[in-house]
Amino acid sequence: MTTSLPPQPLSPLDGRYRGAVAGLADYLSEAGLNRARVEVEVEWIITLTDRSLFGSTPLTAEQKQSLRALYEEFGPAEIAWLAEKEAVTRHDVKAVEYLVRDRLATLGLDAVAELTHFACTSEDINSASYALTVRRAVETVWLPKLREVTATLGDLAREHRDAAMLSRTHGQPATPSTMGKELAVFVWRLERVARQIESGEYLAKFSGATGTWSAHLSAAPDVDWPALSREFIEGLGLGFNVLTTQIESHDWQVELYDRVRHAGGILHNLATDVWTYISLGFFAQIPVAGATGSSTMPHKINPIRFENAEANLEIAGGLLQTLASTLVTSRMQRDLTDSTTQRNIGVAFGHSLLALDNLQRGLGEILLAREVLLADLDANWEVLAEAIQTVVRAEIVAGRSQITDPYALLKELTRGRRVGGAELVAFVEGLDIGADAKARLAALTPATYTGLADRLVDEV
Fold it and tell me: Residues in domain Adenylosuccinate lyase PurB C-terminal (predicted)?
């Protein structure tokens, strides 16, 4: 009989890859969510007492600081307390309410205990808490890592801006570019999506059981509860959703996860392209001391960083798509499908962050083999056919050529076969075009036929 192992993390994010994703746990873990819930509960008490509602008096600065310490110093004791209480209540938000009430008694603030969770449904607390934790995780952990990868990519683009390389459209030799320009394309794409993510909203609701402020008005009909709720939510640094059911409708989350998934798709494209460039020999990998590439082939240095990134981006993309497609719908005024789904937000961002970490490492472990790029170009002079037939067309329009079908002429010369430099020069010399055009074409090589590629790098 096999003996049981000691307790082990089921997810590799909490085991093998913990070091790369630990920063997210401060926000997107169960403890991070509960800390935010305590924050919302505490700040709601302070908001109500600041307005002296129901005969309460404003708390002193010292009392407010003591109360805020409940979430600012939230730690192992609170985590254990909540786990024990939830085992009884079977309700996570109710356990948080009891924690705050317990601490109010400890602080001698029993007089305001009934303002804890006042007129709130769980989703008032949750919508604000998720918005806070997701915003903080994105802004302090995920986006900075995306910016690091983009910055590294930008540095490589500038370094290799003039490194001519043969393009491969449909996998076939095509008009040359530069490695710098091709990397700059990814920088441009990532920066655009990053700006969209940075400008996204993080919304919360605070309007009671079905979004109508019914209980609030029953207790204090003269208070402008929608205005007070808006002020409270915006005071947390969030956007306010005034028109909801029991839950905030999660549309901001759908938008965010779709954009993060979009960024992941671009990164996946980057990973597979760099992997291919490595396989072509365009990039050489820097050996890491002591590392093993293959258990049986000692010569190998495998592009594992890019393969790891590729796989984790696929996992993250699948989870983000599930989050977006599930959270967009809630039956009638509320169902619980969103509750268990949202507990996987951290898993989705964890795999995405792990991919970013691998890309960052991988981009730092490659060197451009310019001699390989030049040899590849020199073996594919036929790509200049585009330039020749385009110049001939211009010469025809200018009245300096009587050629009738320049495309067919070059197609017959180059399609499906290799053409050397000397052969192309001889072909150009025999063309019915002006002397300046002939000289321009005769001087052209695959390595110099890169257009504005070098200059385009300045766009990022």
Answer: 330-450
For 7-59, write each residue's pLDDT tens digit.
888 899 999 999 999 999 999 999 999 999 999 999 999 999 999 999 999 99
Q: How far is CA 224 from CA 48, 51, 59, 216, 404, in A?
A: 13, 12, 22, 10, 80
Measured distance CA(137)–CA(364) in Å, rounded: 25
Spatial CB neighbours of 23, under 8 Å, sequence gap ≥ 6: 140, 141, 353
Is 249 a known active-site residue?
no
Closest CA to 351 of 24, 9, 6, 3: 24
What is the gyration radius of the CA atoms in the chain, in angstroms?
31
- The tokens describing 306, both together, are 């890019």
Q: Which domains does the chain have, with CATH numbers?
A: 24-118 (1.10.275.10), 123-374 (1.20.200.10), 380-459 (1.10.40.30)
Q: Spot the catalytic one: 4, 170, 199, 295.
A: 170
Catalytic-labelled residue, pool 52, 214, 294, 325: 294
Indicate the length of the chain as a whole number.
460
Residue 297 CB neighbour total at 10 angstroms: 9
Helix (H) or strand (E) holding 168: strand 164-169
Q: What is the dihedral of CA 83, 88, 89, 92, to 10 degrees?
A: 10
The vertex-113 CA angle with 107 and 116, nearest 5°, equals 115
State the CB neighbour count (10 A cutoff) for residue 391: 22
Please write down the long-range contacts of 114-117, taking CB distance under 8 Å and 24 or more positions apart: 115/44, 115/45, 115/48, 115/49, 115/53, 115/54, 115/56, 116/41, 116/45, 117/41, 117/44, 117/93
Instruction: Give, as one character, the DSSP assignment of residue 142.
Output: I
Kindly report, residue by residue over 125-152, the tens digit of the pLDDT.
999 999 999 999 999 999 999 999 999 9
Alpha helices by DSSP H, listed for 160-300, are 179-198, 214-219, 225-235, 251-280
Task: Give the count of alpha carbons within 13 A of 328, CB side only.
Answer: 10
**pTM reported for the whole predicted model:** 0.92
Q: Is 250 a catalytic residue?
A: no
